């Protein structure tokens, strides 16, 4: 079916602004296929069902809207205290000088461009493949764009328990940078990896992370998106889980004019477990969208979606979360909660929780709420001597607690609590406008 | 210690006047009880003293050791030594009881210019006080009042009081929802805190709490005023004859 003219023009303009990706072999083929998918879908537009609450205009525009880089001053960068393999990307380009030596990783890790030159590569079965699977039933054109046009990315394969986490740090330097990244991770049977991601990445970041978690494997992911106020990001996680595997992903978002984080997870082996969680705090010009799709295609799997947003001074939060239980996926245990705390009346939260169930022996629950801070609890704390601002921070952290508890590593969870507390302290003066 | 003069209070959002000139003076170390029928303004008095939103003071004053309470934020009143044991203690999901206690204790110490308690000292202190109130480690770990029984909530109020060591304690219907054993436990907790430098204002419907916490002075409140003041025998009189006699006697 031909695209409407307006969509075709938008796509042409977007692609014209991008550098051509030279290449041969399997990577070039994967990119060409992705481009074909993209050409058939067109870029997202406001009238598309899955973009009803989030205007994609700034994410699809040919040029990235300007965004000034943000300096956190002398604040300790997140994950700095953790023994990790650090890889740095500046405005979407890998920077070997700031990164650790890949050869010392103890796991297979390669840059996308280098791996693409090889005739045969393990990533052939994953790169673009999980993304393509994730296009049905909901189209995710920006993900196809990232497969077709990623300027950089890493391919990671783990065959044992990784001795230390891999940390991808994204630096934003140029006010007009338009970064497109595509990473691919394969955690082989029985293996385990923790992946950390931090930083804004660019003025505009379009990103895909594909994760294959084989039988009995574990993948833990913690991401902190960087506090640049004006940055924009459209990120996607596509994961496929084998039997008795575990996938956990947590994202902290503080600030950012426009963020769309999609997670598409497929439980394909019995007794797999997938947890996706997010905590977002925004003040003022902040739009944050979590769009999640979890498919139960095997028996006795567990999934959890825990998303909490604190919205101040007109900030907007969106949650679109789906649990699809396929026929035969008996004993499914699905849980989904999305909540917002609106600290001002002009903030808003738009939620679309969906359950679609074709098996008859399943347990699925979902809930979505939005509300103001509990004045009675606030008074109770104050009456015990806790100053109003501190009391409010305590209640906000309590509200976020369920999402933060999804982080497996307690040291990281504690660090994130501390950063949220500091963020709240900085923004509390703007309370009750 | 606490001195209330001609206190008039109305609801902020409506024209409903609740307190119509309350006068009350509680000396150091004294225990006063306020009894009265439903709707007489007892709980409003406790809320206004502790600084809850929604009330408007139209006239009068309330001072703690000469300091005007009504000008202060709720947390400042707490730091000045005022404590209200809630009739309905508030549940706070996501905030551990221990975190709550420690935050409160240290916030008050900070406000008074004292050094914060170390984690070790705090733990030692809280365990000791909790033991006397039969509050186990599990209850300290759980979120504040969440899933607590009525008795547990009231014991938790007394634990907070014991930890914060206020000089002026207001107990708002602390006996409501308590069985005989819990009432004894709570009363013992309160009695253990009685000393020459600490005063209590006990608000209750029934005389039975006053069997356990013996008051020095009993006030009867009705229609937003204190209409009669006497010794402990006044509470017994109410228990036997109800409020009707007193109300008609005062007119």
CATH class of the domain at 2-93 and 168-250 in chain B: Alpha Beta
Gross morphology of chain A: globular
Structural class of chain B: alpha/beta
Low-confidence stretches of chain A: none
What is the number of helical segments of chain B per DSSP (H or I, 4+ residues)? 10
Question: What pair of chains forms the biggest interface?
Answer: A-B, 23 and 31 residues
Approximately how much helix is present in the residues of chain B?
A: 25-40%
Detailed description of the structure:
The complex is a heterodimer of chains A (433) and B (251). Chain A is an alpha/beta fold and 433 residues long. Chain A has helices at residues 5-16, 25-41, 57-60, 112-116, 129-133, 141-149, 375-383, 388-404, 410-427; strands at 85-90, 93-94, 108-111, 154-158, 166-171, 178-187, 192-198, 204-213, 218-224, 232-241, 246-254, 258-267, 273-283, 287-296, 302-312, 316-325, 333-342, 348-357, 363-371. The longest helix of chain A is centred in the C-terminal third of the chain and has 18 residues, at 410-427. Chain B has a domain at 2-93 and 168-250: 3-Layer(aba) Sandwich (Rossmann fold). Chain B has ten helices and twelve strands. Chain B has helices at 42-50, 74-79, 97-111, 119-132, 137-141, 150-164, 180-193, 208-212, 232-241, 244-250, and strands at 2-11, 17-26, 31-35, 55-64, 67-68, 82-85, 92-96, 143-144, 168-172, 199-204, 217-222, 225-230. In chain B, the strands form three sheets. Chain B has a six-stranded mixed sheet, with helices on both faces. A four-stranded antiparallel sheet of chain B has the order 2-1-4-5. Chain B is globular and about 55 Å long.
Can you give me a brief rundown of this structure?
The complex is a heterodimer of chains A (433) and B (251). With 433 residues, chain A is an alpha/beta fold.
């Amino acid at each position: 079916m031909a695209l409407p003219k307006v969509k075709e023009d938008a796509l042409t303009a977007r692609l014209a602004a991008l550098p051509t990706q030279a290449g041969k072999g399997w990577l070039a083929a994967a990119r060409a296929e992705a481009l074909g998918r993209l050409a058939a879908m067109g870029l997202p537009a406001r009238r598309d069902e899955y973009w009803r609450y989030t205007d994609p205009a700034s994410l699809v525009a040919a040029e990235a809207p300007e965004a000034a880089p943000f300096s956190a001053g002398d604040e300790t960068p997140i994950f700095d205290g953790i023994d990790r393999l650090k890889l740095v990307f500046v405005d979407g380009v890998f920077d070997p000088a700031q990164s650790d030596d890949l050869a010392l990783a103890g796991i297979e890790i390669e840059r996308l461009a280098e791996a693409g030159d090889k005739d045969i590569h393990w990533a052939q079965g994953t790169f673009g493949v999980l993304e393509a699977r994730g296009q049905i039933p909901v189209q995710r054109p920006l993900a196809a764009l990232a497969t077709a046009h990623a300027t950089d990315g890493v391919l990671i394969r783990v065959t044992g328990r990784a001795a230390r986490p891999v940390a991808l740090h994204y630096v934003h330097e140029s006010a007009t940078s338009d970064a497109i990244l595509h990473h691919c991770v394969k955690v082989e049977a029985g293996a385990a990896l923790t992946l950390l991601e931090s930083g804004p990445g660019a003025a505009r970041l379009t990103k895909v992370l594909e994760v294959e978690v084989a039988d009995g494997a574990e993948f833990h992911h913690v991401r902190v998106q960087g506090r640049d106020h004006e940055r924009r990001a459209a990120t996607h996680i596509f994961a496929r889980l084998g039997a008795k595997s575990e996938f956990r992903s947590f994202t902290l978002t503080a600030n950012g004019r426009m963020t769309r984080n999609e997670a598409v997870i497929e439980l394909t082996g019995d007794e797999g477990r997938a947890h996706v969680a997010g905590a977002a705090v925004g003040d003022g010009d902040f739009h944050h969208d979590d769009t999640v799709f979890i498919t139960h295609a095997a028996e006795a799997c567990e999934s959890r979606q825990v998303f909490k947003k604190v919205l101040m001074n007109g900030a907007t939060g969106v949650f679109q979360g789906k649990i699809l239980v396929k026929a035969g996926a008996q004993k499914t245990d699905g849980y989904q909660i999305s909540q917002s705390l609106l600290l001002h009346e002009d903030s808003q939260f738009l939620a679309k929780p969906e359950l679609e169930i074709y098996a008859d022996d399943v347990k699925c629950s979902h809930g979505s709420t939005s509300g103001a801070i509990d004045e009675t609890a606030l008074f109770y704390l104050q009456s015990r001597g806790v100053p109003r601002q501190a009391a409010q921070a305590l209640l906000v952290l309590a509200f976020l607690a369920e999402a933060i508890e999804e982080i497996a590593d307690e040291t990281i969870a504690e660090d994130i609590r501390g950063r949220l507390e500091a963020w709240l302290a900085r923004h509390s003066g703007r309370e009750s406008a | 210690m606490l001195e209330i003069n001609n206190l008039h209070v109305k609801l902020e959002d409506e024209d409903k006047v609740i307190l119509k000139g309350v006068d009350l003076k509680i000396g150091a170390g004294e225990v006063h009880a306020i009894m009265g029928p439903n709707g007489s303004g007892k709980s409003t008095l406790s809320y206004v003293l502790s600084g809850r939103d929604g009330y408007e003071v139209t006239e009068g004053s309330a001072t703690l050791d000469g300091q005007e309470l009504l000008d202060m934020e709720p947390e400042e009143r707490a730091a000045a030594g005022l404590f209200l044991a809630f009739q309905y203690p508030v549940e706070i999901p996501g905030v551990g009881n221990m975190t709550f206690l420690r935050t409160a204790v240290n916030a008050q110490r900070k406000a008074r210019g004292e050094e914060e308690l170390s984690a070790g000292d705090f733990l030692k202190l809280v365990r000791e006080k909790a033991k006397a109130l039969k509050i186990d480690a599990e209850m300290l770990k759980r979120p504040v009042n969440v899933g607590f029984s009525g008795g547990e909530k009231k014991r938790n109020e007394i634990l907070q009081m014991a930890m914060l060591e206020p000089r002026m304690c207001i107990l708002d219907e602390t006996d409501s929802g308590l069985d005989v054993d819990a009432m004894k436990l709570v009363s013992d907790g309160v009695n253990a805190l009685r000393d020459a430098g600490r005063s209590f204002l006990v608000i209750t419907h029934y005389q039975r709490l006053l069997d356990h916490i013996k008051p020095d002075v009993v006030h009867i409140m009705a229609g937003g005023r204190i209409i009669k003041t006497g010794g402990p025998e006044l509470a017994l009189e109410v228990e036997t004859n109800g409020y009707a006699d007193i109300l008609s006697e005062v007119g």
